[in-house]
Amino acid sequence: MNPAPTVADRDPGPPGLAARVPWWRRPWIVPLWAVTAIFIVWRVPDYLGFTPEKSLVALRSHEHYLVMSAHVALGTVALVCCCLQMWPWLRRNRPRAHRISGRIYVAAVIPGSLLALATSVQSMVPVPGRIGNVMLSLLWLGTTLVGFRMARRRRFAEHRRWMIRSFALCFSIVVNRLWTALWFAVLMPFYPAVDVAFWMDVAVASIWSSLLVNVLLAEWWIERTSRPRRPTGPRRDTPVP
């Protein structure tokens, strides 16, 4: 039997009733949309335009490319919904749109993560890289389902924590490209040539870096934003001199 949610588990109400925060306290929303848009315009057409030769992922077969393309299409929907979910203005002023985009996100993640699992198993990267991608796929699916369940039970504090984890895993593919460039520069002096072995090691390092760093950042953000804020003014029961 599941224990009844405590007062600490419940929010005073749905996200639409959250307190207003000045826009300058959240300057990350514009860069988030910009990076997401650049990534989608830069990489997605290569998988949706029936051009397998442009794939960054080594493909085993045409079927592998089709599975990858379907995963990319659903992942694109998830990324856009992810940005909408993290947009404070939408959550506060358009709670219905927030809920709808959240349901679309979950609907995209469930098949998208399963397709990611399939492509991870077929991947031609070394075993450590495949293990990292399998873990990412399973964690993405699991955190999303738990977050959705918490929202259905109106345990919004827990819903927020689990969806932050889900969003961090969703965006690991975006930051993976940054880690690839970084590991390329770091590892290049240690290899005699930029060959297949070099690129495989870069791929493994970037897979694990994007996964672990995003998970750690999500936990740090959850811990930081879950602390009670210090009062900015004198307490009511404290006499003001």
Automatic annotation (TrEMBL):
The keyword Cell division does not apply. The chain crosses the membrane at residues 28-45, 65-90, 102-125, 131-150, 162-186, 198-222. This is Putative membrane protein DUF2306. InterPro entries: DUF2306_membrane. The keyword Transmembrane helix applies. Keywords: Membrane, Transmembrane, Transmembrane helix. Pfam families: DUF2306.
